[in-house]
Design goal:
By secondary structure, the chain is α/β, with parallel strands linked by helices. It has 8 helices and 18 strands. The longest helix is centred in the last third of the chain and has 18 residues. It is globular and about 60 Å long. The chain starts with a helix and ends in an 8-residue tail after the last helix.
Length: about 350
């Protein structure tokens, strides 16, 4: 995706002043609304740390089977350019059930970590909250999750997608696959940093292709090499351009060049796990890079159902997409509707 050296230098400067993560998809259920007042900070250091900074909270979407307890992980930071972890502050975890009711699951303090600590492959484990959605609450469907910081009512929004084994899904990359250019996300970050707004250009008919799959009953997985700190800008762009809702998976590394082998291995491992442990059937894949094709093959998608756009179109015997998605759209629209388990 983004070409490495320039991306690393620029994105290091351009990590926008991101507010609390936005919603991922339109829903008939009402969004979460906090009750009560903001409590302020319990730690004296927090007030100084957050002064003049914006929150950049996020959580990880999860795909699980019905009746499976799942760990809900939130990450709370301020000052995105410095990724300052919010430590020792109270966070409430709320989950929306199938009746649209919001239920309080937990009240926990964000964890602390010594300066410079490295754990589970990520920089400084501080600022995380770990809650558990019990097995009985994991009913089929999408469950929205809000982790609310009591001090200032900033929040992390994400979802748990409860899919039965045998659920059919399509997977797509975002940068230079749905957007037309790898570097456009960097421009969006820069604009956001200075209070502006830049919207990357979408490939013509791309949203129509993905929406056609959703209309036919497929579940959608947005599998991107972007870091989790880009969640708000990503979901905002997807919603603004009319892409259907789906499950998002971001890399948790703070900054990895998108053309690196690390990104390809992350995607391949994610898909292999989804198939082997959750029984999800990956039917079609869309990407722009060689490692996208490799990852989709690892996930069991036949090469004749993998579509690659851009300079690497047709790599490894996959189906090439030329120009944009408009010529491909009738092919998708002609597919039969699927029956999910």
């Amino acid at each position: 995706m983004v070409q490495s050296r320039f991306w690393v230098v620029v994105s290091g400067l351009a990590i926008g002043l991101v507010a609390a993560a936005g919603g991922d998809a339109k829903s008939a259920c009402k969004p979460f609304e906090p009750s009560g007042t903001k409590t302020g900070w319990t730690q004296l250091a927090t007030k100084a740390m957050t002064f003049g900074c914006f929150p950049n909270h996020r959580g990880r979407d999860r795909i699980v089977n019905p009746g499976e307890a799942v760990s809900l992980i939130g990450k709370f930071t301020f000052c995105p350019n410095f990724n300052r972890a919010l430590e020792g502050e109270w966070v409430q975890t709320w989950v929306q059930d199938k009746t649209c009711a919001w239920n309080k699951l937990a009240r926990l303090k964000t964890e602390s970590a010594p300066l410079g600590t490295f754990g589970d492959g990520r920089k400084n484990k501080g600022g995380r909250v770990y809650a558990t959605l019990p097995a009985a609450a994991a009913t089929p469907g999408r469950h929205r999750v809000t982790m609310l910081v009591e001090g200032d009512h900033s929040r992390a929004n994400f979802s748990v997608h409860v899919w039965k084994r045998g659920t059919k899904a399509i997977v797509t990359d975002i940068d230079a696959t749905l957007t037309t250019n790898d570097m456009q996300m960097v421009l969006a970050q820069i604009a956001d940093m200075f209070g502006g707004r830049y919207s990357p250009t979408a490939y013509k008919c791309g949203k129509d292709v993905i929406r056609a799959y959703a209309d036919k009953g497929y579940k959608i997985i947005y599998l991107t090499g972007r870091g989790g700190f880009l969640r708000r800008l990503t979901t905002r762009w997807m919603n603004d351009h009319g892409f259907p809702g789906g499950a998002y998976s971001f890399m948790e590394w703070f900054m990895v060049p998108p053309s690196s082998a690390v990104q390809g291995d992350y995607k391949g491992s994610f898909l292999e796990d989804l198939v082997a442990k959750k029984g999800i059937k990956l039917e079609y894949g869309y990407g722009n890079a060689v490692h996208d094709a490799t990852a989709y093959l690892r996930g069991g998608i036949p090469k004749e159902r993998i579509h690659i756009i851009g300079p690497h179109a047709g790599t490894q015997g996959t189906v090439p997409i030329t120009g944009d998605y408009c010529a491909h759209l009738p092919v998708v629209r002609a597919l039969p509707r699927v029956t999910q388990p």
